[in-house]
């Protein structure tokens, strides 16, 4: 069946069958390989994308459910070669080791900070509870979210260039 949707601000049309997962559509058909497959069953968050303003595990969503949807993947965050402040914060705090989990964590962080611009540590833990990292031990990721909040506030106050 043919579906149409917007991904990272670009309108796309694709043919999918009834069992194609959104994750496969994103990675295989659209070649947006920043979205990762870890567990394939909704437990690790590596496949996280934002769909219609909600965080979803793309391994659990069928592609046809994306018909008419607005989707953001990790590739949609940076502005050409300029990293999003959340991406900068993850690098600066050392919250990235192997990097496999990072796209999912960054999108979960974006959604969290869109809703709670200055979250407490507890709110950060809850906001990122759908994502698993095997490398970092999580403290640096929590630090990255706090630094992201600071950076985004600076951008909004006009102390740095505008961001999404
Ligand atoms: S691959 Fe989707 S949640 Fe793990
Ligand atoms: S940095 Fe390796 S799994 Fe998170």
From TrEMBL:
Coiled coil: none annotated. Residues 1-77 form the 2Fe-2S ferredoxin-type domain. Keywords: 2Fe-2S, Iron, Iron-sulfur, Metal-binding, Oxidoreductase. One of its GO terms (molecular function) is metal ion binding. Pfam families: Fer2, Fer2_2. InterPro entries: 2Fe-2S-bd, 2Fe-2S-bd_dom_sf, 2Fe-2S_ferredoxin-like_sf, 2Fe-2S_ferredoxin-type, 2Fe2S_fd_BS, Beta-grasp_dom_sf, Diverse_Oxidoreductases. It comes from the Bacteria. Gene3D superfamilies: 3.10.20.30, [2Fe-2S]-binding domain. SUPFAM superfamilies: 2Fe-2S ferredoxin-like (SSF54292), CO dehydrogenase ISP C-domain like (SSF47741). CDD domains: fer2. PANTHER family: OXIDOREDUCTASE WITH IRON-SULFUR SUBUNIT (PTHR44379). This is (2Fe-2S)-binding protein. It comes from Petrotoga olearia DSM 13574.
């Amino acid at each position: 069946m043919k579906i149409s949707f917007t991904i990272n601000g670009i309108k796309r049309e694709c043919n999918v069958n009834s069992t194609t997962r959104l994750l496969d559509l994103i990675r295989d058909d659209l070649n947006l390989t920043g979205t990762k497959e870890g567990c394939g069953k909704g437990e690790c968050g590596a496949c996280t994308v934002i769909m219609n303003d909600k965080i979803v595990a793309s391994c659990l969503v069928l592609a046809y459910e994306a018909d008419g949807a607005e989707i953001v993947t990790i590739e949609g965050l940076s502005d050409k070669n300029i990293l999003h402040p959340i991406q900068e914060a993850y690098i600066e705090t050392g919250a990235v080791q192997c990097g496999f989990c990072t796209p999912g964590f960054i999108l979960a962080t974006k959604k969290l900070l869109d809703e709670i611009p200055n979250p407490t540590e507890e709110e950060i833990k809850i906001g990122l509870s759908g994502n698993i990292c095997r490398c970092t031990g999580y403290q640096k990721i929590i630090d990255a979210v706090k630094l992201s909040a600071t950076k985004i506030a600076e951008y909004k106050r006009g102390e740095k260039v505008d961001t999404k």
